[in-house]
Amino acid sequence: MSLASLAKGFRSAYLDHATIVAQLQAWHAAYPDLTRLTSIGTTPEGRDLWVLTVGADPDRARPTAWVDGNMHASELAGSSVALAIAEDFLAAHVEPDRLGLPAPLLARLRATRLFVMPRMSPDGAEAVLTTGRYVRSVPRDDRGPLGKSLWRTHDLDGDGRALVMRVEDPTGDYVANPEHPGLMSARRVDDAGPYYRVYPEGTIENWDGFTIPVPEFNGDNPVDLNRNFPWSWAPVHEQIGAGRFPLSEPESRAVVEFTSAHPEIVTWLNLHCYGGVFIRPLGHAPDAKMAQDDLAVFRQLEVWAKELTGYPVVSGYEEFLYAPDKPLHGDLTDYAYNQRGAFAFVVELWDLFKRLEMPAPKKFVDYYGQFDRAAAGKLAAWDRAHNQGRVVQPWKRFAHPQLGEVELGGIDARVGIWNPPPELLGEVCAQQAACFLRVAALAPEVVVRTATATKLGDDLARIDLVVDNRGYLPTYGVAAAKPLEWNEPLYAELAADGCALVEPTRARAPLGHLAGWGRGVGVGADELAYLRSNGNGASARASWLVRGTGRVTLRVGAPRVGWQDVTIEV
């Protein structure tokens, strides 16, 4: 059965939870020898958190790539891109000609395993798809009864969407955009009225009849999954969205429990929207504090990103802090890189700023803060011409139960701001999948080059083993992973059957971590005046003496690269 016949439309539409599950099940049913489908947890609304495994002999532990999408509920394109990567990984096995990749790259992909979690927040995504309301991550508030006044989002007029509302107010900080009357713009000193206040579509809980509360950044769903991970976690008064404690949410906890049980995850892609940028470590310090070997490999990512997607690659600390010298806490990519030792990065899908031809700021994150009236006007014009008017919605009068006469409508950010139009989704999927396939191919690959038995006499033989790492990355993965206590060096262990070790206490022989052949970019490897290799640290050997005849089994590996067995006759 062809992959095209199994596709549920994720390259051209934003799928609900049931359709995503149907897609995963269809692949698993069609290719049971190449896939596994695992629920790693359940959400409070009863939806399974699915992870699809793709690879030959999918149960065998070996260097593995991880992809997750849609941890932020509104960022639906992440699910489509994650599914596209899964489909292309399958194609590497069953329809390789479709990918048009060089044979060495295909071989590396077939040797690598993939874990895909297409939707980390299925409850949140379902709320966004069905109600249009803003949900940062998960659509719940477990803070208990609150005495303070706050906004609760509702679909007030029954049109199936909870957008925003404007209230005419002489102290208002917004005006109707002079060139695009349906669009609200921040008020300037020379703007004529009427003036407006803009609020979420909804009602005020614990209202005193006069004071209108400031809408919270995360809305009435206060936890941000991307602030809930254990590395560098900080409480809510220091980090908005942190949750009550690290991994307080079942979604983040399921991810950590699963990935911690799989030290073989060596590359990690965390998919978000929007912006059109790759964000790499470090998140808490400048590049001068980063392992320079890792920085060189991230420069290789930069080459592929520019060539295949057109997106830049930026440092999380140097170009993506919302406030100077205030790193984010509890971030998933920080966890993946620093705690799980993975070559981990974020992609903010959908290059809206580039589409609007906005001038590039010094720091990429400033695109968001500097989005001004002129940019909003460009967005409105683009929305009409290229997005079927999905973003800018007409205002409708409504009698609000608390505030009196208001107008509902304004902005539906789901398609055109948070996510690309469905007409462009296939292009985004193809570009991102092509880039990540190359990242996945960086994985180490441990191969037993030779395992031989040499007779030294009537009753004595020497067992010789030579092991290679034929992958790009060293067997420990990124340099940041090398000191992690679980990231043990390779070893080889001999078990004898019929014969016996001369020195039984030396059954296990250390091999150490093996270098990879890759060096990254910008380290002078192509400098013609000094072409030199870094020795043969990608290989190791071990020897044993045995007496008698029979067979020996050599077990070779480590937690990061998995294990393999080789049996030889003596």
Question: Keywords, please?
Answer:
570 residues; alpha+beta; Aminopeptidase; Immunoglobulin-like; 3 domains; eight-stranded mixed beta sheet; four-stranded antiparallel beta sheet; 25% helix; elongated
Query: How does the major sheet shape up?
Result: 8 strands, mixed
CATH homologous superfamily label of the largest domain: Zn peptidases
| Architecture per CATH nomenclature, i.e. the level-2 architecture of the largest domain | 3-Layer(aba) Sandwich
Biggest sheet: strands side by side, in what order? 1-2-4-3-11-14-12-13
Under CATH, the topology of the largest domain is which? Aminopeptidase
Number of strands: 24
Q: According to CATH, what is the class of the largest domain?
A: Alpha Beta
Average pLDDT figure: 95
Low-confidence stretches: none
* CA radius of gyration: 27 Å
Domain tally: 3
Distance between the termini: 46 Å
DSSP strand (E) fraction?
Answer: 25-35%
What is the percent of helical residues? 10-25%
| Continuous helix count | 14
| Morphology | elongated
